[in-house]
């Protein structure tokens, strides 16, 4: 009897304890939760501006538009163009398609005076390996192109020779075949002893720019690195200067070789001196993969986080961005990088276009390849102000 009563007292005490604990938790959580910052899904404050779909006059080409232009250019049989990535330098290659920006006056008339929308057009760049020049076309109207117009002279005031083109994937493919046939396969003993390179292992190549000092030059120093993470910090002390001026790769030549700080005028000269033992040799030693960015120890804690305590203060619709009192349209050109248009503050336009035009990085080193390197980048860009006299920009409006 007594035991039974004791059991039921314990049971009821426990139930009471659990109930009180739950109620206390609910009360405390609701009291304190208001104090901690939270990631709100909703905006605490309404947006201060409205999205404007007229910003689409500055929008990058859509996938469909891009493909329409490509199809249109391929249909022009007289141009005899290929879009195959590994098109040889001696053939005609459709290198680039990009938005052709509307004239500023036309865009402003549309944005401010309710005039008609400017015709949407694309720029197409073709490398004519067969004829030895580069041409730029305007193709329009999008999305269903019916015309193309050669604008090379109009835009650049000169013809553009084929050697002004950047190296394409097709040319790289031929370059690597050339190096295999004319360089690596002729130096097998040296490659194995100095760099442990054989049929299964290879070196990574890194090419240098500029490819000469005069217009038309196209000779490139190619440096070799160990095939490891962050290959740039694993140079092996081997560089080769390839003349690839001709679009006909049978006319390409190796002009200089640098091995362990010593120069040679040909692969043959290096090979003979190496075999004779009159060259200061590199003997291969293994090295750790110290360039890897993979964490070498377990992280100790979660890193800093970014969150919006009162919801997002910005909004994006197509290419139009609102941010507090600001608004702008944005794009990313493969020729000139990131850019914004029609930048407004409290709905007042303060910039028509803000974009990067050019950036240069200069390298230094003890080897000719790295020492000569100056990247005049049009693709890997920083932000900078566009010059007021530039053809497509103006500051301020
Ligand atoms: C390429 O160059 C080689 C060697 O000079 C020549 O025999 C060949 O005819 C050239 N090919 C073309 C398509 O011009």
Automatic annotation (TrEMBL):
EC number: 1.4.3.-
GO terms, biological process: amine metabolic process
Start and end residues of each Copper amine oxidase N3-terminal domain: 165-261
PTM comment, free text: Topaquinone (TPQ) is generated by copper-dependent autoxidation of a specific tyrosyl residue.
Cofactors (names): Cu cation
GO molecular-function terms, A-Z: copper ion binding; primary methylamine oxidase activity; quinone binding
Keywords recorded for this protein, A-Z: Copper, Membrane, Metal-binding, Oxidoreductase, TPQ, Transmembrane, Transmembrane helix
CC terms in the record's Gene Ontology section: plasma membrane
Domain of life, source organism: Eukaryota
Pfam families in the cross-refs: Cu_amine_oxid, Cu_amine_oxidN2, Cu_amine_oxidN3
Gene3D superfamilies (alphabetical): 3.10.450.40, Copper amine oxidase, catalytic domain
Cofactor remark from the record: Contains 1 topaquinone per subunit.
Residues that span the membrane, as ranges: 12-32
Record domain Copper amine oxidase N2-terminal: where: 73-147
Domain Copper amine oxidase catalytic: 305-380
Classification via InterPro entries: Cu_amine_oxidase, Cu_amine_oxidase_C, Cu_amine_oxidase_C_sf, Cu_amine_oxidase_N-reg, Cu_amine_oxidase_N2, Cu_amine_oxidase_N3
PANTHER family reported for this sequence: COPPER AMINE OXIDASE (PTHR10638), RETINA-SPECIFIC COPPER AMINE OXIDASE (PTHR10638:SF4)
Family: Belongs to the copper/topaquinone oxidase family.
Name of this chain's protein: Amine oxidase
Organism, scientific name: Takifugu bimaculatus
């Amino acid at each position: 009897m007594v035991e039974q009563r004791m059991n039921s007292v314990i049971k009821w005490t426990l139930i009471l304890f659990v109930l009180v604990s739950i109620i206390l938790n609910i009360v405390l959580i609701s009291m304190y939760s208001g104090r901690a910052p939270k990631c709100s899904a909703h905006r605490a404050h309404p947006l201060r501006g409205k999205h404007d779909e007229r910003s689409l006059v500055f929008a990058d080409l859509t996938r469909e538009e891009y493909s329409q232009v490509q199809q249109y250019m391929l249909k022009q049989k007289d141009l005899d163009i290929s879009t195959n990535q590994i098109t040889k330098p001696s053939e005609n290659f459709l290198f680039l398609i990009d938005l052709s920006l509307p004239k500023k006056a036309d865009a402003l008339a549309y944005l401010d005076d309710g005039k008609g929308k400017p015709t949407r057009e694309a720029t197409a760049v073709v490398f004519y390996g067969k004829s030895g020049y580069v041409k730029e076309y305007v193709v329009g109207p999008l999305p269903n192109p019916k015309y193309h117009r050669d604008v090379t002279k109009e835009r650049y005031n000169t013809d553009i020779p084929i050697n002004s083109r950047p190296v394409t994937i097709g040319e790289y493919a031929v370059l690597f075949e050339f190096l295999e046939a004319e360089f690596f396969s002729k130096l097998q003993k040296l490659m194995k002893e100095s760099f442990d390179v054989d049929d299964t292992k290879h070196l990574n190549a890194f090419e240098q720019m500029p490819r000469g000092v005069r217009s038309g030059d196209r000779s490139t120093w190619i440096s070799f690195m160990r095939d490891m993470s962050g290959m740039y910090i694993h140079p092996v002390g081997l560089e080769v200067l390839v003349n690839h001026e001709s679009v006909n790769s049978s006319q390409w030549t190796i002009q200089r070789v640098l091995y362990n700080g010593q120069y040679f005028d040909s692969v043959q000269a290096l090979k003979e001196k190496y075999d004779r033992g009159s060259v200061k040799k590199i003997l291969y030693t293994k090295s750790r993969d110290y360039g890897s960015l993979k964490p070498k120890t377990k992280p100790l804690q979660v890193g800093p986080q970014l969150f919006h305590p009162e919801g997002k203060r910005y909004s994006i619709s197509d290419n139009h961005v609102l941010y507090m009192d600001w608004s702008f349209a944005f794009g990313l050109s493969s020729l000139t990088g990131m850019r914004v248009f029609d930048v407004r503050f409290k709905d007042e336009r303060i910039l028509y276009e803000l974009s990067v035009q050019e950036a240069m990085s200069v390298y230094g080193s003890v080897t000719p390849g790295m020492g000569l390197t100056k990247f005049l980048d049009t693709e890997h860009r920083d932000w900078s102000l566009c010059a007021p006299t530039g053809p497509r920009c103006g500051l301020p409006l």
